[in-house]
Design a protein that fits this description.
Helix content: 25-40%
Number of strands: 6
Distance between the termini: 49 Å
Strand order of the largest sheet: 3-2-1-6
Number of helices: 2
Strand content: 25-35%
Low-confidence stretches: none
Structural class: alpha+beta
Shape: globular
Order of helices and strands: HEEEHEEE
Largest sheet: 4 strands, mixed
Radius of gyration: 15 Å
């Protein structure tokens, strides 16, 4: 039982640390879409495929998420480029890097 409590506390700490790497965690609208795939060009993510079948550029995805139109993601940045990251939820299956890719 003690190990189970320690693991739960560890998971909560890991999730909190992961959330701290995000610049913004927008509140999704009730009709927000999900990211179901990554658009890649030469191995780099250039956009996102959404649950309604549409594709958007990386920057458009960030703006949609900021407006609450994409759920399950937060906004992070590397140098001057903003991008989306999955919100930590204890499951790696739905992390953006684990989603299928399409060519862009």
């Amino acid at each position: 039982m003690k190990d189970k409590i320690q693991n739960t506390e560890k998971d909560m700490l890991t999730e909190a640390l992961a959330r701290n790497t995000l610049d913004n965690i927008p509140t999704p609208n009730s009709d927000a879409k999900e990211i179901v795939g990554l658009v890649k060009s030469s191995g780099r993510v250039t956009g996102y495929q959404l649950s309604d079948g549409s594709t958007v550029s990386k920057q458009e995805g960030v703006e949609l998420a900021r407006q609450g139109d994409i759920k399950g993601v937060g906004i992070a940045h590397r140098k001057d480029t903003e991008y989306l990251k999955s919100l930590p939820d204890g499951s790696e299956n739905n992390n953006l890097n684990n989603l299928p890719s399409i060519s862009g």
